[in-house]
């Protein structure tokens, strides 16, 4: 997530070098996807959605300005769509690329462990909770501590959800130590250290947005009821999508296609001589079973 004046690059007109950079980054991203042993459908679908919104934003950036996460606009004008849509749009190509690479790795591991439907619910829950905490935190700082800056600060990006996913991932049979920029640190402190490092390396990043993502991850991990709700919702989604899958499998066009392919195969042809040969072999085996000892019958059996 990016903080004040994050959109100055997006407001520039289209440029040839920038378009070439975007294509190059997308090709690298596609190459990374092709290297995966299994393809997580929800992760790839969300990545495609965010990439599509990003390229559309480059064409008409003014349309997306109304969806930036500005706490004062959410509170004063009840513009709650900002809480969801702001997490799906990005500042520039590099912002999108880094978030998608991180999301690809986290989604590849978590979607396999949680299941696609449960993972989709988890992403939705963390997205709403993370940005809702940003709004609440900005309101508390403005009213309780007279710090009005965060209340008027706008931000965009999927980074808060990525920090939340990092907390969820680190609590699924993770090792005791993790590597952060080449340094081995205890896993339970890895997300907090990364929060500080990113804040100093990228001063324009939203410290509050990333911190709220970590808090949202802890709320999800330490709330057993949330996981039970996630499993129920995933079960409902599977129940809703099952009739569609059955309808596709029972489609008459598909069925006729399968029948035509099956009927196109030449049937097995049996000649009269084959039947005669089978009868001869059966009679011979029956004769040998009567005349030969039990120990020698196996050596004279003739297969049909």
Automatic annotation (TrEMBL):
Query: Where does this protein chiefly localize?
Result: membrane
Membrane topology per the record?
Multi-pass membrane protein
- Provide a Gene Ontology MF annotation, just one: serine-type endopeptidase activity
Lineage, top-rank taxon, reads Eukaryota
| Keywords for this protein | Hydrolase, Membrane, Protease, Transmembrane, Transmembrane helix
Q: Where is the Peptidase S54 rhomboid domain?
A: 78-222
Question: Which subcellular locations apply to this protein?
Answer: Membrane
Output the SUPFAM superfamilies linked to this UniProt entry. Answer: Rhomboid-like
Q: Which InterPro entries match?
A: Peptidase_S54_rhomboid_dom, Rhomboid-like_sf
A GO cellular component entry from the record: membrane
Xref: Gene3D superfamilies? Rhomboid-like
Transmembrane stretches in the record are: 114-142, 154-172, 192-222
Choose any GO biological process term that the UniProt entry carries and state it. Answer: proteolysis
| Family assignment from sequence similarity | Belongs to the peptidase S54 family.
Identify this protein by name: Peptidase S54 rhomboid domain-containing protein
This protein's species is: Peronospora destructor
């Amino acid at each position: 997530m990016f903080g004040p004046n994050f959109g100055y690059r997006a407001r520039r007109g289209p440029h040839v070098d920038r378009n070439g950079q975007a294509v190059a980054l997308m090709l690298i991203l596609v190459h990374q996807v092709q290297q995966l042993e299994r393809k997580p459908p929800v992760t790839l679908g969300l990545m495609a959605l965010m990439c599509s919104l990003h390229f559309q934003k480059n064409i008409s950036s003014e349309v997306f300005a109304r969806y930036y996460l500005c706490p004062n606009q959410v509170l004063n004008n009840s513009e709650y769509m900002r809480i969801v849509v702001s997490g799906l749009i990005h500042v520039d190509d590099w912002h999108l690329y880094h978030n998608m690479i991180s999301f690809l790795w986290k989604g590849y591991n978590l979607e396999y462990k949680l299941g696609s439907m449960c993972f989709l619910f988890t992403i939705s829950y963390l997205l709403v909770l993370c940005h809702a905490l940003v709004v609440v935190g900005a309101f508390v700082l403005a009213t309780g501590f007279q710090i009005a800056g965060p209340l008027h600060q706008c931000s965009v990006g999927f980074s808060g959800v990525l920090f939340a996913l990092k907390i969820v991932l680190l609590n699924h049979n993770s090792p005791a130590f993790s590597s952060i920029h080449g340094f081995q640190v205890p896993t339970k402190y890895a997300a907090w250290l990364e929060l500080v490092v990113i804040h100093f390396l990228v001063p324009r990043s939203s410290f509050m947005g990333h911190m709220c993502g970590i808090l949202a991850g802890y709320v999800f991990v330490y709330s057993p009821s949330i996981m039970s709700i996630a499993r129920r919702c995933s079960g409902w989604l599977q129940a809703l999508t099952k009739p569609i899958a059955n309808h596709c499998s029972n489609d008459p066009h598909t069925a006729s296609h399968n029948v035509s392919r099956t009927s196109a195969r030449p049937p097995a042809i049996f000649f009269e001589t084959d039947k005669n040969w089978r009868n001869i072999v059966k009679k011979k085996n029956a004769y040998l079973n009567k005349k030969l000892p039990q120990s020698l019958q196996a050596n004279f059996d003739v297969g049909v």
